[in-house]
Structure formats: C-alpha cells, structure tokens
Amino acid sequence: MRFGVGAVLLFVAAASCRDASPRGPLTADERSALPGYVYFSAGGHHADDPSPLYRVRPDGTDARRLTQDERAYVGDAKDRVALTIDDDIVLADAALGGRQVIAPAPGFDWHPRFSPDGAWVLFESARASFRDLYKVQLATGELVRLTDNREGNFDAAWSPDGTKIAFASSRHGQLDLFVMNADGSAQRRLTSHTGDSIKPAWSADGRHIAFISGRDTRDELYVIGADGNGLTKLGEAPAHARVERFAWHPAQPLVAYTVRAQQTGSKLHVAHATKHTSWRLSKKSDDHFDPSWSPDGQFLVLVSKEEGKNRLLLMREDGERRTTLSVDVDELWLPRWVDSMDVEGSDEA
Amino acid sequence: MNKTSVLVGGAVLMLAACVPEGDGQVDGRLGVAVPEVDESSPMALMFEEAADEFDVPVDLLKAISYHETQLEPAAGAVEFEGQPAPYGLFALRGDELQLASFLIGSTVEEVMSADDLNVRAAAALLSTYADDAGIPRDQRGDVTLWKDALEKMGDLDDDMRPVFSNEILSIVSQGLAVPLADGSTMIIGRHAEAQEMVETTSQGLRSSLATWLPSPNHSSRGSYSPEIVVIHTCEGAYSGCVSWLRQSRSRVSAHYVVNESGSQIAQLVDEARKAWHISATYRSSLNSGRLSNRNGVSSNNFSVGIEHGGRAAQRTWPEGQITASVNLVRDITARNNIPRDRYHIVAHGQLQPESRTDPGPNWPWSSYLQRIASGSTNPPPPTNPPPTNPPPSTGPVVTVDNTDSGRFRSSGSWDLSSWASGKVGSNYRFRSPAFTSDPAEYKVALGETGNYEVFARVPGNGYNTNVPYVIQHASGSTTVHRNISDKGGQWVSLGTYRFAAGDAWRVLISCWTNGRGYLIADAIRFEKR
User: Fold this and answer.
1) Tens of pLDDT, residues B132-189
2) B508: number of Cβ within 10 Å
3) Judging by DSSP bridges, how do beta strands B415-417 and B428-431 pair with one another?
C-alpha cells in the first residue's frame, strides 16, 4: 500500500480551478479554514488483512499513516481519540502517540464511545459473554458492566446529556432497541419486530433516535422518539437496495445516510428527521458511501468510488462544493471527521 | 469375497438399507450413478485377515480406521506441538503405538511404516481392550457389546471417550462405502442393531433435516456452546465440497452443507462438537503473536457452520437452496436457543465488527434473515408496484389525504411513513392491529347530494389482510373488510353509498382486526356515480 505524504487536492467538478465560483470546489482559503482531521482506515475487507489507520487535514496537508499491521478503526474523539485496535479499546492522542489500552481483558472489545462529559468510555465486549455493554471511568479505572444476558447487547450510544444509553439487544430472540439509564438501571424496550433494529444513534437535541431496521424486507432508516413514540421511516431503500450507514448532523435534525444497490452502487441522501423529507445528494453515476459530518456541520466527508479507486470527497449538505481530497491510499474507507480542538493532545506534528 | 453393488458418488456414502447383504438398494436422496464395487481390494483383505486373527468385528475395525484417518495412512505429521506423532491407517501414537507393536511382536518402526502391521497391531489392541471390558469371546460378533472396549481406544480423556465410541457405533449403525485411492471401495457393513447404542447425548445435536455424513475434522468445544450460525459458500459444487470436508487431510469441515437445489443437506459434524469452518490462521499473523479470543479457533468454539454449494460471486441463489437453508437455520437456532438476527446469523468474513452489518453482495441476506425470524418458508412478496391511475370518473371527485389539515385525525399510535412509493401526498399513517378501535378518521365535505363510490388508497403491498373500514353515510354506518395485502398502488373500492351535500361525512379505519400486517391510512376518495 502506498501513501503520498505530500497529498494534494484535486478538483473533479466540471468547474475549472481558475473559476472558483460558489458552486465549484472549495478554494484554497476555504479548505485551510476547515476544522479538524479526517481519520480513515484502509483495506481490511478480508478477515486476514490488516486495516491500517491514516489521518489527513481536510485541506490535504499533514497526511500520515498512523498504524501498521493492525486492524484499527476510530470510534470516537474527545480530548483523545478512542479506537478499536485489533481486540482492544485504545485511547491515544491525535497522532496515536501515548497509547493506553483501557480495561484490558481477553476477549475482544470494540465500539468505544466517550460519555458527553468525557469521564467514561462505553464499549461492547465479548470478555465474559457473547456480547455485553460496559463502561469504564477513565479517572479511576472503575469498570461497570451494564448488561448481562446470554443473547447479547450491542451498539451502545450515549444520549447527548449523558443520562441515558440506547442499545440493541437480542434478549427476546430478535434484535430490538432498548434505552437504559447510564448506570444500567431501568432498561426499557423501544421496538418489537422480527426485522432487526440496530445501530441506534441520538439526535443532537436528544429527542430522536435514528436506527437501521430490516422490518420492511430490507435495511432502511427509521427514527423513533426517545420516549418510544412516533416510529417513522425516514430513509427508504428501493427493492434490492439497503440503507448501509447513517450519521446525525452535529447540531440539526438532519441525518446523512447511504443507500446501496447491487447494480448501481451507493448513493448519499440527507433526511430531515422532523419534517420527514429527504433528498439525494449523489448523482446517478456516483458511488458514495461512509459519510461523516464535519465538526461544525458545514460539510460531509465520504468515500467516492471513481474508476475503481476510493477517494475522499468533501461536499456541502446540499451536494454542492464537491472537493476531492487526493490521498494515495488504496481501498480507503470509513472516514471520520474529528475536531482538532478535541484531540490536540501531545500531537507534535 | 463377494462383490457388492452399491452407490458411489463423489464422497463417502452412507449405506443405510444397502449393505451388508449386498442387494444394491439405492438411497434415493443420493441419486447418482451405481457402479460395480469390488470389495476384494488389498486393503479390505488386510482388515478381514486381522479381524479374523484377533477375533474382532471387521466393521468396527474399519470404522475406527475410517474415523482416525479416512483410510489414508498417517505419516507422522504433528498437528499440535507436544502431541505424539500419529502413524498408519489407525493413527497409532505414543504409548498405545508401543503397546500395539508389542502385542504383535513387531517393532514400533515396523508398525509405523507397514500398513498390514498397523492394521494387525490395531486389531490386537482392540482385542485386548475387549478382554479388559469383559466381552465374552463367543459374543464378540455383537457390536452392541463393544462400547466399553471402544472407549479404551486412543488414550482419550474422560470427556472424549464416549464421544469416540459414539462416533464408531454411529458409523457401523448406518454403514459406509469409502472410495479408496486405488479406485476400489471399502465397505463398512451396516449393523442396524448398533443404533440403540448410539448415545442419546447426541439427540438435539443433529438436524432431522440432514443426512449424517460424518467428517473426521472436529474437536471439543471446550466450555463453549453454539451461540452463532456462520454462513459459508463452498466456492464449488456440493459434491466436491462434502468430499473435501470429509477428508482428514483437508483439516477443514463444517457442521452442514446444503446442496444447490436444496434437495439435500449433509451433516458432517455433530453440533456438540467444534467443526473447523473458520480459518485457524485468522489474524494470528497480525496479532503480534498474541493469542486472541477472537481468532478463528475460538470463533469455531461457539459457532455452527453451514456451507452452501455454489460461489459467492454468483448473481442469484436458487430458491430451493435458500428455503432449505432457512429451514435448517430455524431448526438449529430453535434447538440451541440462538436468537434469529444478524448478530447471531452471520456471513463468514463478516466477523469483524466494523463491517458486520455488510453481508456479502449476492446472498439475499435481508429476506433470508426475515424468513428465518418470521418462520415464513416462502419468499417475501414483491413490494411497491408502480402506482396505478384512479378509476375513471364521470362525476365530482373528492379526495382527502392524511396530510390534509382539519380533514384527518388519528392517535399517536398511528405512525408516519413516507416509504411506500404508491402513496398519495408526501406520507401516510400506519399502525399494528390491536383489539381496540383507535380509528384513523377522515372528514369529507361533499358539494352535491348523490351516490358516491368510496375508495381507500393502498400505498404498497404487504399490508393488512382484513382491514375494517367504517363508512358513515345517509342511511347510517356500514363496516366493510378488505384484504389490501396485494393492492399496492391501487384505490380499493369500499362500495357505493348515498350521501347528502354537507361537511360531516366520515370514513374510519379501525385497527380491531385479526388480519395480519400494518393497517394503513393514506387517502380516501369519493366519486359520484
């Protein structure tokens, strides 16, 4: 795998570089003003492959490979980055220095999520059971097991105020959504359907939980009130297609999601969670997947597959200002845009 | 030596109802060509002579050899560090190899290298164990008396002894025809009476949907029990797949293999045992030499593996095969109390967390899982047909949509969706049936008195099979029931009624029904007749 450290920005839109119209790609000044870092993984689609982690500034500078022969995925970021590296939850600074394995144990751990106040990390673990949810207090190392049933508990997500945790559980023989208090008490079932409900995620205002469910014969995007009322299909997929991933806007009730069809690839859509409207950002020939919002919610980064090669693409929520971030890494995927204010740490780049 | 006509396919075959009498009856489930089988091969003679010499049942002797080596001599390769190397057709090793050599007056080296001595040594060993177990010499022909003697074989630990004897008795209870490298076939005669000795501990660990075609490639689950089902594709045809997974040298196996048409399912490994279907080398080279609970060995510990004849790259999968697989997974999950969802029924290669919701591109995952979960053995109905135009009308037409302000109301139990493409307006309401009325209610204003036909819009297929519609008209109130499950994109007629000009006419959709599927409130339509 090659990686061009001197990465440059390429413009793929029809507009020329000289004509920096408001609808064209971002200008150099605009690019340099973009916040944070884009982390992304590469390879690793096969079980025997490593999946190294990379990082690049959204203007294409400061690009580097951060891990070698490991499987590394960014889960969350606050003042440090929380990652899954092979079987462990690792906290590290922005350049992945100062690595610290948290709550180490045999059996694999993943899906780390910081509590909103940064004091705890919530994660999923096979250390003592098929899958259960745990949280560890970073200051004391105190480990709290939040769930305990043999069928498994998955996909934990903090509410924005830190008082609740949404998760999926198979405890009734099918994958349903649940909400519990952050100490594990008052576990309450939100959905009941044989079509799996998975990957709950809270809206910024804590009023809605978006999730993926296969209840209508294929994976589609749904939203339900945090109180369990108002189940609504938010993002539909045509026959022989499915909603693959989604991401809440950091402030507004908007959800970016991708719909993948076997024949035509993956398309990016954005839905408004309360107006129940959605619009498609990808064009017919586009293959766009793995969206992540910028920390300020102004842009999305996603993977665009062009002529067989995966590229990082920036765009506004209306689909305009498309700007390709040219990093020379094969099979890149899963970009995650993280605020640099959060993860300065001991990065000496 | 008689000649026996039996069925030979690409793999070793079970001979239930076929042998030992040699009447050549064919098991229809394995319906392939029926060549002549010459049982007088040199290897068969070796077994016959050794069995006669040491007074042990020849079919037990053959079954042990088949179980240990698939009748291919072991050449001393060590699987696990520290384990004594196995040799010959019985994979004799360690102290037992020394004892067996002593019993026939040969050196260990001779028994290691000469097939005939290896067979004689094993027969002598088995005979000694029979004496230890107290089997009377004149009753040694009765295989049902051999359980205790078999459990002394192989220097096994206490957990494994009954598993081994069970395996051998299971083989002879059904019989086998084993194709040999020289082109001949070894017959392991069937002893149906041994079935009663096959341990009841296996009950519930084999599927009644499958044919038992045992593979030697399995081991203990340790303290684990089945927690997930892993779906594989053979990357080849069923027959070759089964054959390969049953050869000891392949070092791989699966619990089940489903053939292309779904007409046949082979079970190769008991569910109580660990099949070797997930690569043992999984990530071991990437993991800094650290033994991980997540590596392939431990995934095998808690999983049931199913192979499917075919290739991952194929565009479609035969409906019969999918249906057979659905039924098999329902059976496995029911007996092992495994939840029927995507985190417990997974694709091979999807065991890494970041991609575990991304099943392979061609296997029909969504409908497959839904059918497993719902118990439907039929493929899901097509959804979202193209919208059809409303029927032609001659008089005034009034349409009320659920989005029309002041014209529609429902409780919060009626959820909002914009999904189905046959909808009127931007969305519609839906809710599950319940034994409470909780109606969705439309209020209709009509400018002219007259007879109107009333229609309800159905935005997609698959909805309720018996929807109660209540029409309030000039003569009172009428309730009609309609099956809307296949009326996607259509206006369904609720009948023609008389209405006076006015603004108080109502149509209600009750949720009190024994019909299946969501109730739908999209739009209603009045057309003057």
Assistant:
1) 999 999 999 999 999 999 999 877 666 567 767 887 888 898 888 777 777 778 888 9
2) 18
3) antiparallel
Burial class of residue A3 in the structure, from the number of CB atoms within 10 Å of its CB (0-12 exposed, 13-18 middle, 19+ buried): middle
Q: Are strands B13-14 and B4-5 parallel, antiparallel or unpaired?
A: unpaired
Interface-testing mutation among B286, B356, B362, B429, with chain A (most A C-beta atoms within 10 A):
B286
User: Residues of B numbered 345-404 whose beta carbons fall under 8 angstroms of chain A's beta carbons: which are they?
Assistant: 349, 351-355, 357-358, 361-362, 366-367, 369-370, 373-374, 380, 382-384
Minimal CA separation from B510 to chain A, in Å: 19
Both tokens of residue B467? Answer: 């929807």
Q: Tell me the pLDDT tens digit for each residue of A246-266.
A: 999 999 999 999 999 878 899
Structure-derived torsion over alpha carbons of residues A336, A280, A275, A231, reported in degrees to the nearest 10 = -70
> Confidence class of residue B353 from pLDDT cuts 50, 70 and 90?
very low
Residues B340 and A170: beta-carbon distance below 8 Å:
no
| B273 three-class SS | strand
Contact A71 B352 (CB under 8 A): yes
In the beta sheet, which residues pair with residue B332?
A: none
**Residue A283, Cβ density class (10 Å: 0-12 exposed, 13-18 middle, ≥19 buried):** exposed
At residue B335, the 3 state secondary structure works out as helix
List B residues 399-418 in contact with A (Cβ-Cβ < 8 A).
412, 415-418
Q: How is residue B510 written in tokens?
A: 């009750």
Q: Name which of A67, A83, A218 to mutate to probe chain B: the one with the most chain B Cβ atoms within 10 A of its Cβ.
A: A218
Rg over CA atoms, chain A: 20
Whole-prediction pTM: 0.62
* DSSP symbol at B145: G
The amino acid present at A348, given as its one-letter code, is E
- Please give the span between the terminal C-alpha atoms of chain B, in angstroms, as a whole number: 91
- Cβ B286–A242 below 8 Å, yes or no? no
As beta bridge partners, residue A210 has A201, A223
